[in-house]
Amino acid sequence: MGRFHLILVWSLCISLCLLLCPTSAQLKTNYYANICPNVESIVRDAVTKKFQQTFVTVPGTLRLFFHDCFVEGCDASVIVASTANNKAEKDNPDNLSLAGDGFDTVIKAKAAVDAVPQCKNKVSCADILALATRDVIGLSGGPSYSVELGRLDGLSSTSTSVNGKLPKSTFNLNQLNSLFASHGLSQADMVALSGAHTLGFSHCNQFSNRIYSNPVDPTLNKTYATQLQQMCPKNVDPDIAIDMDPTTPRKFDNVYFQNLVEGKGLFTSDQVLYTDSRSQPTVRTWAKNNAAFNQAFITAMTKLGRVGMKTGKNGNIRRDCSVFN
Ligand code: HEM
Ligand SMILES: *[C@@H]1O[C@H](CO)[C@@H](O)[C@H](O)[C@H]1NC(C)=O
Ligand SMILES: CC(=O)N[C@H]1CO[C@H](CO)[C@@H](O)[C@@H]1O
């Protein structure tokens, strides 16, 4: 082979590698195998302890992960506290009353991890939140799954960065699809992730437009609408929160989808998944098949966990999850 050919073959190899070899770091399930081998059981124990103190640990942590990932990526930026000079993500009105117990779960799990000398300041808050989210889903009867790890914590958290990044309870299917698609999530992923509303609470103002309109939102089950009017009278105490899944509020299951079939989706953004013919078949399938829902949920959560991951210079491992180093 002549010199020219050698160079040609060599440059072909390089271009192939540029195409096929991962250019950025990738998440992997065994990321901490040598760094902090017991991280999964340490986090699980801390989360279980917190769960035994209050059930709000479950919806609080799950929603925190979602809000973190949709605003500047899954980088624990949502956990950072505001300072005199910086109003952080968590203080944007759109944080929609994130439950303090979600934050506390991550802080407690981080303390447990850092109590092990080998692990101290070696595990990111973003990874701890991803693990804790998997654990609360399992603790409330949902599926278990392997969590991809290796995210760093973000270096920025601002209240203004939240604007327009989170879905609203009044969204229709096109609005939901386009927001989720901007993070690489399909309609099926969006419908599966909405199944998280099988747990947790909502304040009355998120759906009062549906029950006090004239006529009452016709996609709402009439019996359910009456119940909602009783639980959420006009001028209700703004602190009152009601179960989003009226049937099995403390169980991670597919009853959310069964509720949608009966017209018992709490938000416009929930019920539209059934009323819109493009997503109705998916809702019907998962209403009947819990295993299929679980599988789709795991797929979607894994994709959600890859959104905006920070590596290299774009992140670090925060010593205190609520304060930049
Ligand atoms: C599809 C678009 C979504 C919309 C419009 C939406 C909207 C909301 C709203 C308005 C609340 C009630 C807030 C309050 O009044 O306190 C809520 C609660 C909640 N959301 Fe979503 N959400 C969406 C998707 C998701 C996703 C993808 C997840 C997680 C994977 C999630 C998890 C939760 C949980 C667990 C709660 C209950 C929180 C608690 O009880 O503390 N949501 N959501
Ligand atoms: C409304 O809900 C009730 C139970 O709460 C159920 O029996 C009924 O079938 C629902 N109506 C519709 C139209 O799905
Ligand atoms: C948990 C949390 O930090 N919630 C905040 C959300 O934003 C409002 C202001 O809009 C704060 O008052 C809450 O403390």
Automatic annotation (TrEMBL):
Q: Which residues bind Ca(2+) 2?
A: 198, 245, 248, 253
Which cysteines does the record link by disulfide bonds? 36-119, 69-74, 125-321, 204-232
For the ligand (heme b), the binding residues are: 197
- Signal peptide coordinates: 1-25
Locate the active site.
67
Question: Which residues bind substrate per the record?
Answer: 167
Note how many cofactor molecules are bound and how: Binds 1 heme b (iron(II)-protoporphyrin IX) group per subunit.
Report any one BP term from Gene Ontology: response to oxidative stress
Catalytic activity, EC: 1.11.1.7
Could you give a GO molecular-function term held by this entry?
lactoperoxidase activity
Ligand binding (Ca(2+) 1):
68, 71, 73, 75, 77, 89
Any one GO cellular component localisation term in the record: extracellular region
Site residues, Transition state stabilizer: 63
Keywords of the record, alphabetical order, are:
Calcium, Disulfide bond, Heme, Hydrogen peroxide, Iron, Metal-binding, Oxidoreductase, Peroxidase, Secreted, Signal
The lineage's top-level taxon is Eukaryota
Please report the stretch or stretches of sequence annotated as the Plant heme peroxidase family profile domain: 26-325
Instruction: List the catalysed reactions.
Output: 2 a phenolic donor + H2O2 = 2 a phenolic radical donor + 2 H2O
Q: Which CDD domains match?
A: secretory_peroxidase
Q: Name where it's found.
A: Secreted
Q: Which cofactor does it need?
A: heme b; Ca(2+)
Q: Which InterPro entries match?
A: Haem_peroxidase (IPR002016), Haem_peroxidase_sf (IPR010255), Peroxidase_pln (IPR000823), Peroxidases_AS (IPR019794), Peroxidases_heam-ligand_BS (IPR019793), Secretory_peroxidase (IPR033905)
Q: Which Pfam families match?
A: peroxidase
Can you tell me which family this protein belongs to? Belongs to the peroxidase family. Ascorbate peroxidase subfamily. Belongs to the peroxidase family. Classical plant (class III) peroxidase subfamily.
* Function according to Swiss-Prot or TrEMBL: Removal of H(2)O(2), oxidation of toxic reductants, biosynthesis and degradation of lignin, suberization, auxin catabolism, response to environmental stresses such as wounding, pathogen attack and oxidative stress. These functions might be dependent on each isozyme/isoform in each plant tissue.
- The protein in question is named Peroxidase
In its UniProt entry, the species of origin is given as Malus domestica (Apple)
